[in-house]
Amino acid sequence: MNQSAASYITQEQRxxxxxxxxxxxxxxxxxxxxxxxxxxxxxxxxxxxAALDMKKPSMEAYASEIGTAINEVNYAIxxxxxxxxxxxxxxxxxxxxxxxxxxxxLVSSHIYSEPLxxxxxxxxxxxxxxxxxxxxxxxxxxxxxxxxxxxxxxxxMSHVIAEMIKETFDAEYISVIEGGVETTQxxxxxxxxxxxxxxxxxxxxxxxxxxAKNLTPVTLELGGKNPCIVDHxxxxxxxxxxxxxxxxxxxxQTCVAPDYLLVDKTIKRELLEAIKKYIKDFYGNDPxxxxxxxxxxxxxxFDRLYELLTEGNIIMSGDTHRDDCYIGPTIIDNSSLDHKIxxxxxxxxxxxxxxxxxxxxxxxIVNKYPKSLAVYLFSNNREKQExxxxxxxxxxxxxxxTSIHIFTTTLPFGGVGDSGIGNYHGKASFDTFSHKKSxxxxxFLFDINLRYPPYKDKFKYMKKMNRFL
Length: 469
Ligand code: NAD
Fold this sequence. Notes:
Layout: H1 3-18, H2 25-41, H3 43-54, H4 58-84, E1 87-89, H5 93-98, E2 107-115, E3 118-122, H6 130-141, E4 145-149, H7 155-168, E5 174-176, H8 181-188, E6 194-198, H9 201-213, E7 218-221, E8 227-230, H10 236-248, E9 260-264, H11 268-283, H12 299-306, E10 313-316, E11 320-321, E12 326-327, E13 330-333, E14 350-356, H13 359-366, E15 372-378, H14 382-391, E16 394-399, E17 420-421, H15 427-432, E18 434-442, H16 458-468
Parallel strand pairs: 3-4, 3-6, 4-5, 6-7, 8-9, 8-15, 9-14, 13-14, 15-16
Antiparallel strand pairs: 1-2, 2-18, 7-17, 10-13, 11-12
Helix pairs in contact: 2-4, 3-4, 3-7, 4-6, 10-11
């Protein structure tokens, strides 16, 4: 793709947006319904692509790629009429005098949600379908035209997304552009009305810099090191089972996977035994042979992860096959903040473990790192739950489980600080792709002179009134 092709498609979409067609709410519902139908039609191709790209188990691919997308579409279709209705707001009495809105009962104020225009959605490779289609649902619901750039690192899924969208929508409305870094950079030099990016913090900064040149607003869905604190007041077996689920789902290549474990010293041994047991229960004695365990996306990421296996005490697996991009579920005990594995987001099936004496110590370790996408706490103690909520900051927090909070359509999903800007899912997706326009309407019935020159005594009078209010 060259520069003129990127310019051509954005201009075509701008012309289509200016025709006003996408502003019609029935049109949007119709397009969402078509999207839902085609996702179902493509189920087999999506599962196949997920298996070819990273041997993603069908159950995981269905739940995390197709299921979440269908949920989002259903929720948007069901609620779109309510979301698009202008929201009436009250005018505080104090405003009715000072600013001459005098005839309180003859004024109305509303917030209108209007589409932004032409938006760009850039996706990552780990959940390549869900993380491009879910934002697209929000963009359609809000009435925009969209250009989607799936990740080149998951090439089979990128082709499926391109084919599915091309077959279903006119390019002037929704278009998929495939390609690598150069293609993304060409797209980023165009003027968009919003850029929605999911990926790493490093590229997030590049995206934001490019967007700034055109004053384009951004949503950045990034990553980070998600801590998982395990207190001694827990149901150890359930805690272990839920940690194994969140950490090794998609072979650890999940932005909200627990990155490292902080465990109360008094229960460490018991917890690690339980974790080892559930790894065996889930994936068998040899996870390499399990059809329920995914692979690392490519050799570059395999090599990056492999280098993390040199420090600490590996107490589980460490088994690797480079030719198949396989790294078995791995637990590293006695990790330290100085180890390489504790420097950056792991994004793979390796769980470093650090023990702590009291919760103060655990919280202080969490707060040494930039704000993460998620914080996990396992504890039945309400006071400790409140403390972690209050004393740490993260995109979201899930108590006594891992990862599942992001599947709730009514909870906005996004990061804070280094883990991202903005959020989406459900109504939050609609809001992300909408402009909130303030609208006031007045009548011509009468007009009070208080705010108009010549001011003379009006200033005194106005000050008196403000004091009284
Ligand atoms: P990435 O940042 O490498 O790539 C994402 C996209 O950016 C791709 O489409 C790629 O083409 C493009 N890109 C890469 N380098 C670029 C450059 N120099 N200039 C312009 N564009 C460029 O991310 P990834 O490796 O695909 O995904 C892994 C990261 O994404 C992890 O950090 C993970 O935590 C994060 N992530 C976050 C979420 C979330 O919802 N917050 C979800 C999934 C993944």
